[in-house]
Write a structure and sequence with these properties.
8 helices; about 20% helix; globular; about 20% strand; about 290 residues; single chain; Rossmann fold; alpha/beta; 7-stranded mixed beta sheet
Length: about 290
Amino acid sequence: MSVSANITDASHLTYREKTNLGSFYTPLPIVRRLYDMLLRNVGTDAADVILENACGYGAFFAEPTGQKHARLVGSDTDAAALDIARRNFPDVQFIKANALTNISRAKYGIHKNERLIIIGNPPYNDVTSHAKNRIKSKSTPCEIDPAVRTRDLGLSFLLSFEKLSPDYIAILHPLSYLIKQTNFKTLRPLMRRYALRDTLVFNSRTFSDTSKASGFPIVIALYARDEHGTDYNHIIHRRFRTIEGADFSLSDFDYISRYISKYPARFPAATPAPNRYRFFTMRDINALKW
């Protein structure tokens, strides 16, 4: 394959633009891992449509074993990125579209009876986080329908996927979307209809220009449409594999919330009267400042 640009690096964007758009493109070894998971659990054929609706330069169309015979559709709001994607992958149907408004299959020319597989690495950017707060815009980078609007682009994308009723969703997203209960509750419309079939966890430092200090866990997750869905108890007891070959479960760990009330002012009776503890919450570890 001959390509006209490095398809894993959004080189036409500044670091500030990448941060605000959540546009950190996916390394090809991670793309291959996603397709390995998809093919191992699902497979693809000529009747399938594979959609990547935040496609950037098209890295997820660079792995031919994952796309055998399927019809490929990519979209993005970034016209410059789409121009590069079209040159690199002339067999893919590319559409300039905002995935978070007027959400429907018809928008991408996908019939309601076609088997749809959504893939990719949707943008994620929590505007309330202290991480990179000095360069973050306080406004959303695009129009977002009220039904899927959240504080984080990635959560909004996951909610938008549910509205397209795909048969499978094979995507990357922060592991915190699953293990942090408030995020899991935000994703309730998705989790009610989709079962978490497979996962693989890796460090965000795998991406260029992100998490230069410590990094945070990203998961390659495969969801399948299933009437039983996924509940939080499943997340607590699930064993997550890591890219290094280890595994872990949230049930392996103890938590401070079992011993100290996180909201003592709201629930004063939760702490013993003679020995009240003060619990100072932090938005995330990046909020710790001297």
